[in-house]
Design a protein that fits this description.
Length: about 100
């Protein structure tokens, strides 16, 4: 079975606080953020809307992309989101379609 690794950006709202992460199960991981089950950055700042993601077949490529994005300035991250999701809608519901 081929694994899919996802790099993702969550936002508190349009142009709000951002969080970048990597996971091998994006639906489960975003649901975990949404449930605010742990005392974490995303829970504290209500960063629960999935606004961007990319999938990779290799974990090392996904981790490298996550690190790259984490070092980007805010304007570049906003442009990345706008290119894929100009309305900033929560993409979480699309994951199970």
């Amino acid at each position: 079975m081929e694994r899919i690794y996802s790099v993702y950006l969550l936002a508190s709202a349009r142009n709000g606080t951002l969080y970048c992460g990597v996971t091998n199960n994006i639906a489960w991981r975003v649901q975990e953020h949404k449930s605010r089950s742990a005392a974490s950055f995303t829970a504290r700042y209500n960063v629960v809307h999935l606004v961007w993601f990319e999938n990779y077949s290799e974990i090392n490529a996904a981790i490298a992309r996550e690190k790259q994005i984490k070092h980007w300035n805010r304007a570049w991250k906003l442009a990345l989101i706008e290119a894929m999701n100009p309305s900033w809608r929560d993409l979480f519901d699309d994951l199970n379609k």
